[in-house]
């Protein structure tokens, strides 16, 4: 019996990626597709790569349209998920790709998003300690942000093992799809091709409190995160370079052993062999994560670099993986493990 | 019972793409991987995106290594397939991604490749008239060249319907993976990014006789092809702009109707709605083809533009699709229908 | 004594490129900058690369603002130049980068632009037969379109020498800056990177009649042009692949000799040695043009491939070069001859 | 009277960029061009964009070939400059783009380069405190590395003003031309387009001791640098994200004021207005540097982001700028101040 899934926000990049994955998910049947400003349009016009759904017409995002499905994926602007979720009923699995239910710290939410905190849902990053168990059988899932996905997988093992001082420095490059389909001049192809630039420098990016939350939980103390996002001339992918002062006595072998152990049973996270480096191209379109670790003895820092596809593992893949867990399906069902390289 | 497949030439782009597809093919189990200059290396080093096969070690390309499989994919330099195929036995399905068995015209082969003609195998482009039937049950398959895949799908219906004069003009842009992994200065990232250039201008490209063959077969008369390939700043994808003088009396509606009919039952070929244009990004990593047709009344020409992924539908996807047909499996098994866009 | 220049439309790509060139032009002093929707903004915000003019504030595009300059560059939407030019006085050199005064065929103008024809000005492509002489001392210049610049330089010698049949087929790839700074979804970086697509297929592109005009003038008979523009994943550059049936008896050496002779005295046009191919990267940011010719004996066609930078030689460079000629300055003054490669 | 300049290593990216700049330098006449493995080849084949020098033939890099020039630019592999320089005579200005004479710490040289230290020459980054004065009249110049150019300009003012703790963290993205023209698989266009990856993680990059040297000199104490270089999908450009713990009491206004003062008289370094971010595209092909500063109060760090063109300001532009100073020419002569954007 197929799981019936609706996608709210099907005209955006996150919604489109969810549909790309669902198109080859053997247990899911795609139901309603909604999108407010594009309601009434054929999906073939809005998302020309989604051939199997080309003739579907987008509906308004209403509870009526989304009702009657087993799973509802929400790919909506921040702040809109709570109202929809409330109406959908407790039996429906609601997978929220927005930020609304990611943070447990109401104050941090308020400060970065400026609206009242809506609550906290089980966190859709099963590779974090304790996260998978919380997803089993859940009917509400908060899919992590794309940057926090990469950064948390990169640094949580070091913090959980007590190897790092609680001041992390993260510089991450993202493909432009991370900024969505918004029509802004700096996102034009002419501006981004052949050019790299930072944005939100100095602590303002909304994904920062989510990183602080995950790393602090692992460390058992508050971890500060200096986060600088940069825009790279590519459509997809996040390369996160994460570092922290190593706790005295931390050795390179110990560091490596901690990561090997942390991910030895994870099918989507690969600690690369020494000498190999993560590349976003290697995980393009896949749910896979590549990590590498290093200890810089001169600078006294441990460095972890992680590569993910921001739209797949960083959004839609994480959402489908978490859905699989929640519904008791095989965790990897319908998820590409191999990136489309070169 | 799984089909056991070997891949000869697993370290190149074609071989890697075959493995990417086989990794999620539910009926195939991957056996031997070979690669001459890289024999002895772990695949994880050569193809870091192929995580599920990272620990496999490449063997020399010998008949001994390839024996004992149900299917052998050959992704070898031109001229090497015949010797291998001869030894493998008639019961083994040999799928050749090289050029050796694509041409029926021994003279054209000799002229463009400079070696004796090895023969002609059933042609792995099932969407061409008669091709699918010839693949059923076959134990030898010649996978088409990437350019001829795009150009033949774009122009065969027009020629088969008698709409076009027998002088085709084709200008196609390819991603750099079409040139393989060879270490040539003009393929360096620094040279290709932000730059477009032609090559093999004036009729020299080896895919030209293959296009002539397919279009002539459809037209029932010899069709000349003026073919200019260009190198585009992208890794994958072919955009083929194909045109010919329209036969007198050809109308835009008739043209469109011919293409609608030609591909109405083909799951991988989409004639886009009027006003929509093919884009290689839409078919990235998928086995899909996007086509659009137009009639230029002023110039008296019909124009057909086609987009394919040179490595997927243009090579490995075409190979797997043809294998599925030859073995009696569902034709689309294991083949992504949705491109990884954006 | 410096020439005082104003730029109308300074916030767009064409206007910005004019300013980039004028910044290092030893005889020009930049005066008023205008731009309607951006009037009141600092140029540093709109064009962050134009450091020397960062503090300039854009004015409204009015005759008052543009008056009192020796040269006025118009980089305005089509149809706006005539009104401005009329008011500026006959003594002011008006260099129009728009289409308004390019076409001599009022009917063709009307058909492709839908407004009454404004007239015809001396054509700013000095390398065409007779064009340079018409620019000397002129106070009105119509800068050619970017595609017609590439295509005319590529095909005019063949037509002038009677080597080609009067049916040209042109497929050209352009960088996205050719489409301007307009906020359209298909111009987003996420959409264009890694993807090629055509547009305006079938004869609709507005640059077509300009090509027809130039090629017909050279041929002495009407030449039809089948023109397919494509959008390439790069910011700048046009690669135009142009072909036509060769007139009977045309030889490869004769073809080459015609082009050598046509451009032997042109400092910005290079016929590459045999075996070398034009690349847009080689002319990036420069006023240079690279050409290569070939004769395809099998297909009976001559092929000429040309590479230009659409913003430099294709727009702003052509404008400055023509200004230099009109004002009696050295033709190459302030114009980069060497592309920024790699 | 023209300055006569020779370029050793004219077939590489650094040598080619020196020639691009010299082609429009009004006081320089280009003499001998040398290049060992390419001796005997025409430059037009090796560097097709350098049209004005297309017919020049490369000589072997010998003292005989380089003698008789006023200036000799060395763009040679590390370790080869000392021997050449020794023979050229003290009256010749030798501008070394290699690393040989950049470091004053012989031990650091030995550790990172593995050969005996050759000495220390005046450092070609005139914007550093004291550097310009040391270049005036000098006949030996060590051009900085591309990364140290960006990082030193970004962090020296903060260290000189005592605002930062002596542990810097730098993550920088470079275009692939930074890796030179070497034929390595990971530099192929197919590998780098659409993909970001790190390299030399953990302190191994040879530019690290040069950064340590410059920052320590500014701070008056040893500054450690944790440096992670990454390869971005673009040909040119470095975006360096640099941070350090802010010394207690450092305020955002003070930080900004320090940078404003440091660069107020520098024509090639721009501190962007608040809210604007550096982009490598803005400085493409130019000698300009864009900087922005921020204070992250939560994380207690100051962040400085800098954008340079690795080949221009980061190599050839810095070399020509330093030559101008050494020879008493206007510092900006022949140097583009405006990047080729978009």
UniProtKB/TrEMBL annotation, chains A, B, C, D:
Active site residues of this protein: 146
Principal localisation: cytoplasm
SUPFAM superfamilies, A to Z: Glyceraldehyde-3-phosphate dehydrogenase-like, C-terminal domain, NAD(P)-binding Rossmann-fold domains
Top EC category: oxidoreductase
Protein location: Cytoplasm
Presence of keyword Oxidoreductase: yes
GO molecular function terms noted in the UniProt entry: N-acetyl-gamma-glutamyl-phosphate reductase activity; NAD binding; NADP+ binding
GO BP annotation list: L-arginine biosynthetic process
Enzyme Commission designation: 1.2.1.38
Annotated metabolic or biological route of this protein: Amino-acid biosynthesis; L-arginine biosynthesis; N(2)-acetyl-L-ornithine from L-glutamate: step 3/4
CDD domains assigned: AGPR_1_actinobacAGPR_like, AGPR_1_C
Known catalytic reactions: N-acetyl-L-glutamate 5-semialdehyde + phosphate + NADP(+) = N-acetyl-L-glutamyl 5-phosphate + NADPH + H(+)
Record keywords: Amino-acid biosynthesis, Arginine biosynthesis, Cytoplasm, NADP, Oxidoreductase
Signal peptide from the UniProt entry: none
A single GO cellular-component term on record: cytoplasm
Family per record: Belongs to the NAGSA dehydrogenase family. Type 1 subfamily.
Role: Catalyzes the NADPH-dependent reduction of N-acetyl-5-glutamyl phosphate to yield N-acetyl-L-glutamate 5-semialdehyde.
Protein name per UniProt: N-acetyl-gamma-glutamyl-phosphate reductase
Gene label: argC
């Amino acid at each position: 019996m197929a799981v019936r899934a609706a996608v709210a926000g099907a005209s955006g990049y996150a919604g489109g990626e969810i549909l790309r994955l669902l198109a080859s998910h053997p247990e899911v049947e795609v139901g309603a597709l909604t999108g407010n400003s594009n309601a009434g349009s054929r999906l073939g016009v809005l998302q020309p790569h989604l051939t199997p759904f080309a003739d579907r017409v987008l509906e308004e995002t209403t509870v009526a349209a989304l009702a009657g499905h087993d799973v509802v994926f929400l790919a909506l602007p921040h702040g809109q998920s709570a109202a929809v979720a409330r109406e959908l009923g407790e039996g429906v699995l609601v997978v929220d790709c927005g930020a609304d239910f990611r943070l447990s710290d109401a104050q941090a939410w308020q400060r970065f998003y400026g609206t009242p905190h809506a609550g906290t849902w089980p966190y859709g990053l099963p590779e974090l300690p304790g996260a998978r168990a919380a997803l089993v059988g859940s009917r509400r899932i908060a899919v992590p942000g794309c940057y926090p996905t990469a950064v948390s997988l990169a640094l949580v093992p070091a913090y959980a093992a007590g190897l790092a001082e609680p001041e992390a420095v993260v510089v991450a490059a993202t493909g432009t799809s991370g900024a969505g389909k918004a029509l802004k001049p700096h996102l034009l192809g002419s501006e981004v091709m052949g050019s790299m630039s930072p944005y939100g420098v100095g602590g303002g990016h909304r994904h920062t409190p989510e990183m602080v939350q995950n790393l602090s939980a692992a460390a058992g103390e508050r971890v500060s995160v200096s986060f600088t996002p940069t825009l790279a001339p590519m459509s997809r992918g996040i390369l996160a370079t994460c570092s922290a002062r190593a706790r005295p006595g931390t050795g390179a072998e110990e560091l490596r052993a901690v990561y090997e152990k942390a991910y030895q049973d994870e099918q989507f996270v690969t600690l690369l062999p020494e000498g190999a480096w993560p590349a976003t191209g290697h995980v393009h379109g896949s749910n896979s994560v590549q990590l590498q670790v290093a200890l810089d003895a001169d600078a006294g820092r441990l460095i972890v670099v992680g590569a993910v596809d921001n739209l797949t593992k960083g959004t839609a893949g994480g959402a489908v993986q978490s859905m699989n867990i929640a519904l008791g399906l095989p965790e990897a069902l319908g998820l590409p493990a191999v990136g489309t390289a070169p």
